[in-house]
Amino acid sequence: MRSKEEESSEFSETESALCWAEVRFRQLSAAIDSQSQLQQISPASLAYLGDAVYELYIRSCYLLPPKRLKDYHQQVVAQVRAESQAAILQLLEPHLSDPELEILRRGRNAATTNPRRLDPKIYQQASSLETLMGYLYLTNPQRLTQLLTYLELNPSSKVIKS
Q1: CA–CA gap between residue 40 and residue 21 (Å, rounded)
Q2: Can you tell me the distance from the alpha carbon of 125 to that of 16, in angstroms, rounded to the nearest whole number?
Q3: Are 49 and 137 in contact (CB under 8 A)?
Q4: Catalytic residue set
Q5: Closest CA to 85 of 63, 120, 42, 54
Q6: pTM for this prediction
Q7: Would you say 85 and 130 are in contact if contact means Cβ atoms under 8 Å apart?
Q8: pLDDT tens per residue across span 107-142
Q9: For residue 27, how many C-alpha atoms fall within 13 Å in the half-sphere facing its CB?
């Protein structure tokens, strides 16, 4: 016999496609029960998570209207590349709190790799945005959603609301 907790942690076909994300988020939130534990997660690890969170958000924005896979890919890549992330960060910065700006600083300082194809400053800005996305995913998904609403992505163009 399964407990109610086991049943609630599973997701059925009728539940939201994001149910797995909600279940995993709850597991991560429970594991990170203090600010000191969160501070132990490196900015690079937060950026790794934030990169995935951000790309999933961008992919979901371009899913409709239906397109060929090549077209989906081109639109998503245009938004998740470092140059676009740096531009988005500049638009979001005025809306960020002091603690969020501190997370950006940590992410920027952790980006020590010098990529060949772009300016290291752009890479640092993109990494700091990803770090913030990962941090907010773990600590305050409502705030993450609020910040993402500042991005008005149109499937037929690249429009960003300021």
Answers
A1: 22
A2: 33
A3: yes
A4: 51
A5: 54
A6: 0.77
A7: yes
A8: 998 877 777 888 989 999 999 999 999 999 988 989
A9: 11
